[in-house]
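B., you asked whether I could sanity-check this one before it goes into the benchmark set. Here's the sequence:
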Amino acid sequence: MKRFFNPCRRHRPDLALLAAGVLPEAERTAIEVHLAACAPCQKYFTELQGTAATLAGWAESQPPLQPRPEAREHWAESLRRAANPKTVSRIPVSAAAGGWWRDVIWSSRRVWVGLAAVWVLILIGHFSLQDHPRVLVKASPPITREVLLAYQEQQHILNELLADRSGPLAAERPRFVPKPRSETMDIRAA
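And here's what the prediction gave me:
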């Protein structure tokens, strides 16, 4: 994505090598052609040349530094370990977890914070709505048989009022009312 907005970004390493004077001849012509046509790269190249000239003169102006004997021994040990292919240094779990944290979590922390906020809202909504049906059920009294019969009567009256009376009336069928079990039992069997 960064290369899309800054297409000259891919030329920056070659410009640095050209300013230092170590760019191979085969690549030098291509970068010089680009440098002749691109004003931002020309500005960047002049800045690099100034820095390279300052660093080139630094070796003569500063006294040579010698590392301490402990540092030399540490470097020598590191070189010996690098030369020995059997020795493999393991990365501690804490360092690996820290690297993973930096690469995955910390680099996109705004996205993770947004996702965490959404999950918190979902959990709050879930727990606040979870008790809602229970409250309604506990607050309403149980339906009794009288209430059910009154509801059926009201429904029957409403059906009669809404019935279409434009056609011929059909004979009303008698309603079947079941008898209680005590009346249907045969007395002789007892």
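One thing to flag: Residues 97 and 103 are 10 Å apart (CA to CA). Otherwise nothing jumped out at me.
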